[in-house]
Design brief:
Shape: rod-shaped
Radius of gyration: 48 Å
Number of strands: 17
Strand order of the largest sheet: 9-8-12-11-10
Helix content: 55-70%
Largest sheet: 5 strands, antiparallel
Number of domains: 3
Number of helices: 16
Structural class: alpha+beta
Length: 639
């Protein structure tokens, strides 16, 4: 698959899309601000109308009200036909009757002076000339006659925008007192009340809000362009690094495939149920089957019946997690029916998620050694018989024995070479493991991590746009943002465990400081740390190995030691960097752990020894039950 190339046109396209999105958002927000202003003005018009209608209906149902006669409130000439239009109080004070229309007109004039909101009582058949409708009111009244319940419109008056609103008035029984002569009946539409709200104060606020929105969107646009430019550079850099990593992985896989195919040791990979997945040529030659034939065979059927139960018992312990690996010598039955003795090393092979899903078997033919051992046993038995029977034949027997011993030495030398090849393969597997960890860590951090951060920022932007009255939606959206924060934290911890970025960015000293601090917080263990400046003294491979050794040591302490204090010393010394870690935990019997069956030791200590050996250093472990554990090792300073 060819490496992916990031094209500059994609970045230009993203900037164009971003510009369009920000522009659309600005226009939408300006539109919403204007709509909000109109809704507020409409609400004020409704309130003014409802107020006018309420006190007008109150006055109508009470037949009007009497007020003192003043120059501003002379007797209403349109009520001259009423016998009690003008009355006097017992004290002689002159009062005149205000009908609802007269009262409403005076309130409208007062409201216009105080608040600038004009009201007008009008009709297509006005009694008073001042109540005659203008053109807009005439259009509204005609619409009411046709069934329209209300009319609202923004118009220009004297060069300024105004909201004009009008609803009809229906004739009530009390209204016929003044309007029956006009031919109105109860329930007829006899006019309406119009309200004129100046929009200039509202639109002034919209202009200020528009400026703020434009400035904010401009800043967001600039930040977005900056992010796209920086992201474009980082993506190109990441892709270049990824292509290099993929090329390195491909080369590593090629090397592994060559080792796998050309190794003299038989190598086989099975699934969790024991079905063959891969077998190298040496393994196939050992058993006389082709790789395709082995895929149709259960590996247990290849084991000699007398050795099968013991072998399967170890595999069950391995699958149950009781053993990290095991090694055993048993007989295999070849395709031609012959038996061969093998030394077999079996371990768990994790998948890309770190979970066990396969078994790895390394098989070495030790038939010749077994034959030599059997021949030696027979020779010794024969020697005893010959000593008893004929002392004279002693010289001949010794020569025969020497020959058998020589054969055994040759067999042991071949076994030693096979074990050396196995150690080489283990070193290659460690290298491949670190490469895969690095690839997974980079993909988690740079791909998934960055995508989650962008998603979080987008959700936060949407959260800020929500109006205050949708608190439930804002709370749910905030919960989602908090959950994304937790996921980002988990992704960062996984990436850090696979390949701590601080090791790459700040060096080994900072990475170890961070590792010890995090472990101390998590396990509540007191640390006594004495670490001199070691940055720049070790190669990248050595830094990773040292970090993994301390990581494995702390893991063992957490699992087994039950320690409360840890003392760490790190300092350059005689052309090397000396590392020392001591704990006051429960300790263990080092001889018991390091002797006996290798499968009982666990992979931690052998892996630590192997990492230090590959760096050209040496590792010492000192421990006794109840006295804690001390681990020290030296790594040569890189030239």
């Amino acid at each position: 698959m060819p490496p992916f190339r990031w094209k500059a046109g994609l970045a230009w396209g993203l900037m164009a899309i971003w510009t369009a999105l920000v522009g659309a958002s600005l226009l939408w927000n300006i539109h919403q601000a204007r709509q909000t202003a109109l809704e507020l003005a409409t609400t004020e018009a409704h309130l003014s109308y409802n107020k006018d209608l309420a006190y007008r209906l109150w006055a109508t149902r009470h037949g009007g009200v009497y007020v003192p006669i003043t120059p501003e409130t002379p007797p209403n000439p349109y009520l001259s036909h009423l016998p009690e239009r003008d009355i006097k109080t017992p004290s002689g004070r002159a009062l005149t009757l205000l009908n609802p229309a007269y009262m409403t007109r005076q309130v409208h004039e007062l409201s216009a002076q105080l608040y600038g909101i004009k009201g007008h009582l009008t009709s297509l058949k006005p009694i008073r000339a001042g109540n005659a409708p203008d053109d807009w009111e005439t259009k509204a009244l005609e619409a009411f006659e046709a069934g329209t319940p209300e009319l609202s419109e923004v118009v220009e008056l004297a060069g300024d925008p105004h909201l004009r609103f009008m609803r009809p008035m229906h004739t009530e029984k009390a209204c016929l007192k003044c309007h029956a002569a006009q031919g109105y009946k109860e329930g007829d539409i006899r006019g309406g009340i119009s309200v004129d709200v100046p929009l200039k104060p509202y639109f002034s606020g919209v202009r200020v809000q528009t400026f703020v929105l434009a400035a904010g969107h401009g800043l967001i646009w600039l930040l977005g362009l900056t992010g796209i430019i920086i992201g474009n550079r980082r993506i190109r850099q990441h892709l270049e690094e990824r292509n290099l990593a993929e090329e390195a992985l491909r080369k590593s896989e090629d090397r592994f495939r060559k080792v796998f195919e050309n190794a003299a040791t038989g190598i086989a990979i099975t699934d969790w149920e024991g079905r063959f997945q891969q077998s190298n040529p040496a393994y196939c030659a050992l058993l006389g089957y082709s790789e395709e034939e082995l895929r149709r065979i259960d590996f247990a059927s290849l084991i000699h019946p007398e050795d099968r139960d013991a072998n399967l018992a170890e595999i069950r312990r391995l699958q149950a997690g009781e053993l990290p690996f095991f090694q055993i010598e048993n007989r295999y039955v070849r395709k031609d029916g012959q038996s061969v003795w093998v030394h077999k090393f079996v371990s768990v092979l994790p998948d890309v998620t770190g979970r066990p899903a396969h078994l790895l078997a390394l098989v070495t033919d030790v038939t010749e050694r077994k034959w030599a051992e059997e021949a030696l046993r027979r020779a010794r038995h024969e020697l005893e018989l010959r000593v008893q029977k004929r002392t004279a034949d002693l010289h001949h027997t010794v020569e025969q024995l020497q020959w058998e011993v020589a054969e055994r030495r040759q067999a042991e030398e071949r076994l030693g070479k096979s074990e050396e090849r196995l150690r080489y393969l283990a070193a290659q597997l460690l290298t491949a493991q670190e490469t895969e960890r690095k690839r997974l860590a980079l993909e988690l951090h740079d791909d998934l991590g960055q995508s989650l951060i962008i998603l979080k920022l987008q959700l936060q932007a949407e959260l800020r746009k929500l109006p205050p009255d949708v608190s439930d939606a804002k709370e749910r959206l905030q919960h989602i943002i908090d959950y994304i924060d937790e996921v980002i934290g988990n992704v960062r911890r996984m990436s850090r465990d696979l390949l701590p970025s601080i090791l790459k960015d700040l060096g080994l000293k900072a990475a170890l400081n961070y590792l010890f601090e995090e472990f101390s917080k998590l396990k509540e263990i007191q640390f006594n740390l004495e670490m001199e400046d070691i940055d720049g003294l070790l190669s990248k491979e050595a830094q990773i190995a040292v970090y993994r050794i301390f990581q494995e040591s702390l893991t063992n302490i957490a699992k087994h030691a039950r320690a409360t204090r840890i003392k760490v010393s790190i300092k350059p010394q005689d052309g090397k960097v000396a590392f020392r870690l001591e704990d006051n935990g429960s300790g263990f019997d080092l001889k018991e752990v390091m002797s006996g069956d290798l499968a009982k030791r666990g992979l931690g200590l052998p892996a630590m020894h192997e990492r230090v050996r590959l760096l050209g250093g040496n590792l010492d472990i000192s421990s006794r039950p109840g006295t804690g554990t001390m681990i020290s090792f030296h790594v040569p300073i890189s030239g």
